[in-house]
Amino acid sequence: MNEARKLTDLIEYLKALAELKRQGIHVTLEITSTLEAIEEELRK
Fold first, then answer.
1. Residue among 15, 3, 44 nearest 34 (CA)
2. Nearest C-alpha neighbor of 15 from the set 33, 31, 32, 39
3. Is the separation of the CB atoms in 13 and 34 below 8 Å?
4. Rounded to whole angstroms, how far apart are CA atoms 35 and 29?
5. What's this model's pTM, rounded to 2 decimal places?
6. What is the rounded distance in angstroms from the CA atom of residue 44 to the CA atom of residue 24?
7. What pLDDT was estimated at residue 29?
8. Per-domain residue ranges for the chain?
């Protein structure tokens, strides 16, 4: 259940980042660090 919760949280976070980017706010650094964190989680 915890894994599903993590994925749900990640999806919501990524949706929020996508919305900010759509509005023209560049959050490349945050996206990069988020993707690295996701990759790290998936390796566990």
1. 15
2. 31
3. yes
4. 10
5. 0.49
6. 34
7. 67
8. 2-43
Eight-state DSSP code of residue 2: H
Count of C-beta atoms within a 10 Å radius of residue 32: 10
**Is the Cα torsion angle 17, 22, 23, 26 positive or negative in sign?**
positive
Q: Tokens standing for 11?
A: 């999806």
CA distance 29 to 44: 23
DSSP string across 15-37:
HHHHHHHHTT---HHHHHHHHHH
Q: Using one digit for the tens of pLDDT, what is the confidence trace for 2-44?
A: 888 888 988 998 898 888 878 876 666 677 778 888 888 888 8
According to the model, what pLDDT value does residue 27 have? 60
